[in-house]
Amino acid sequence: MTAASTDLSIMVRRCLLTFKPFRIFVVGIGFFSLCFLMTSLGGQFSAKRPGDSPFTVRSEVLGGQESRGVLRKISDMLEVIMKRMDALSKLGNTTDTHRLDELSSALDRIQPMGLVERIQAIAQNMSDMAVRVEQLLQRSMASNRVRDGILAQCEIPKDPHYPDCPSKMDWMRARWTSDPCYAFYGVDGSDCSFLVYLSEVEWFCPPLAWRNQTAVPTLKPPPKRQAVFQSDTGTLLERVGTGKESLSFMKRRIRRLASQWASAARRLDDKLSGRWREQKRILVHVGFLTEESGDVFSPKVLKGGPLGEMVQWADILTALHVLGHDLKISVSLKELHGFLGVPPGRGSCPLTGPLPFDLIYTDYHGLQQMKQHMGLSLRKHKCHIRVIDTFGTEPAYNHEEYATLHGYRTNWGYWNLHSQQYMTMFPHTPDNSFMGFVAEELNETERLNIRRNKVNNMAVVYGKEASMWKCQKGKEDFLAILHRYMEIHGTVYYETQRPPEVPAFVKNHGLLPQQELQQLLRKAKLFIGFGFPYEGPAPLEAIANGCIFLQPKFNPPRSSLNHEFFRGKPTSREVSSQHPYAEQYIGRPHVITIDFNNSEEFEATIREIMEINVEPFLPYEYTCEGMLERVHAYIQNQDFCSPEAPFPPVNSSQTWLGGSRSPLIPLPNSTILAWASNTSYYTPWPPLSALRLLASLQGQSCVKACQSAGLICEPALYRFINIKEAFSALNFQCEGLESEMNHLFPAFLVEHAECGLQQDPLLFSCAGSSSKFQRLCPCRDYRIGQVALCRDCL
């Protein structure tokens, strides 16, 4: 072996041994390309002797002074490069590493040629690279001199406005490698990179004076655009996607109701008189349909599984589209990541940019997925989220600290959202917003056909799964009574043989497509429930097709305290029947609620139903126009991101506009109070003109207190009655006035004549009662057929 080839081998090994790991990654590929080329020419070399290094080049191959000179030149070039790289390896500026890629790529570009010519080409490339390294070294040394002055400024700042900065720095030092997203944002293990990340990507440390703050431009929000009603659902159907039976079901529903949505849009447009509406950027993430959540619904669509959630989501998508908003739809984590700008990693870091949406509609599954993948951004942007929540979430369960301390913690609550960010299927929880769904409306021809074709002695049982026929005790007894008067039909799913749970005298049609089910309901006189499922859309569809809905009364009412189905749900609401909305808001003659265990009452009711003739009925709030009206009002008026003016502190004297001692005045001939129109400059939604203040009875919730006065409890107006003047206006004599976190406050403690104000606005709650308290309740009026909106709310 010649001295030159020995030096070459030594140079290579020195480079490989002395470079830091990240330099080896960048430069090592180039050196290995050289070494591989030298050894890959083995077909032209003689056999390797035992003990030769795999990187040793046999001197006999090159032969002659020319070969040794070339090897010496390569050795010299490697020495120069090694020195330059050794200097570069001591620099901490990882932003320059991408330039080193040029070094390795140059080695890889060598084309096959004669042996000596190849090595000469390598030498020439090495010479060129040496020049480039020299230039890179000069630039890096210049930037390093600047950074040397900065390093002294990378001490942890002691700023009382950023108390968590030191602890976050300690965390980053210990855990920054736990998620690749930190490296994605430029964290490299140095304190400077930690501070830059914690001050510019997160917000736990103060801005750094030595950073060029203008380097990151402040993005202006996009210009506001006017929303225009859309009658064509073609683009919506494309966005819904394919690949799941649940999506196919939703698309069929969108197509079937498209003409009704278009007609409703025209009517609402006329009602709003061309009023300017802001177009919102909206993401709809249907979490329960993602594979990551299990998607238990899609496989059951064709087997009688629950369809209520998919009915509602299809209608939500259509309403948002028809209202003219910019809509994106996600049914997978991959789509969610792409729409939100989630950085690569495990979800510990914030989003890569500003939230590209004004509103995000999702469910509890989607909310959990966003928590796992949005990092701190969820806390920052959660005011934009709306959670579709079938059974409702009460404030005591929503407030994480309060729920944990007072026994309200469940698997579904504790998100610390504004209670009205939860949106329900029925208006059973006034603390939440009522989203709803739609049922098909009949035209005059269809109504006429129903009158002609109704079969007076025909009943259809509510329940598509055989398990639903097991839930009602004494089912055989009342079905036998019903069979004496009516022909009973079922729509229970089965594959090969008749489900044994269905009695032989029941004519079972199996699972029917929606249109065939509609035809069956239009012929039937009675639609009867067994007590389960709770609060589904089917009873409203039956009533809309001219059926009478007969359902069991629950005594005692069912709730999370006494019934397995509701246990763990974030609500203490008591369910008095299978469908409380139908019982309370529709009632007789369309809805009859009785004790099914009382056979005499049951039989008498069947005879009564045989004598009743009813017209098809559909509440306005469950029509396409009603849902469009409601969703429009929410989108244009609900704002949970803008800070609210604080409610007056305890024991403070308040000077009201107009010089009055109280902002509340009694209504004529009533104990109910209203807001004086000249006492405030606030312009909330709902407006203060809708406010009606009253005191509950002891042990009565504000939900019940407002209902007893023909009103609706309105949590958005709580902050205006959370004042000491409200107690005096209601003639409460306060021996003491305190403020605390209590979901029953503001309230009057009867035994001690103490008045309590609410300390945390997240705990303003219409739900909840105690025999010790009389609660102060902010009620409001409502539009006929639209309980979600007050008379002046549109």
Automatic annotation (TrEMBL):
Its main location: Golgi. It is found in: Golgi apparatus membrane. The chain crosses the membrane at residues 21-41. GO terms for molecular function: alpha-1,6-mannosylglycoprotein 6-beta-N-acetylglucosaminyltransferase activity. Pathway: Protein modification; protein glycosylation. Residues 181-779 form the Glycosyltransferase family 18 catalytic domain. It comes from the Eukaryota. It is a single-pass type II membrane protein. Its EC number is 2.4.1.155. One of its GO terms (cellular component) is Golgi membrane. The keyword Membrane applies. It holds the Pfam family Glyco_transf_18. InterPro entries: GT18_cat, MGAT5_Glycosyltransferase. Keywords: Glycoprotein, Glycosyltransferase, Golgi apparatus, Membrane, Signal-anchor, Transferase, Transmembrane, Transmembrane helix. One of its GO terms (biological process) is protein N-linked glycosylation. It catalyses: N(4)-{beta-D-GlcNAc-(1->2)-[beta-D-GlcNAc-(1->4)]-alpha-D-Man-(1->3)-[beta-D-GlcNAc-(1->2)-alpha-D-Man-(1->6)]-beta-D-Man-(1->4)-beta-D-GlcNAc-(1->4)-beta-D-GlcNAc}-L-asparaginyl-[protein] + UDP-N-acetyl-alpha-D-glucosamine = N(4)-{beta-D-GlcNAc-(1->2)-[beta-D-GlcNAc-(1->4)]-alpha-D-Man-(1->3)-[beta-D-GlcNAc-(1->2)-[beta-D-GlcNAc-(1->6)]-alpha-D-Man-(1->6)]-beta-D-Man-(1->4)-beta-D-GlcNAc-(1->4)-beta-D-GlcNAc}-L-asparaginyl-[protein] + UDP + H(+). Belongs to the glycosyltransferase 18 family. This is alpha-1,6-mannosyl-glycoprotein 6-beta-N-acetylglucosaminyltransferase.
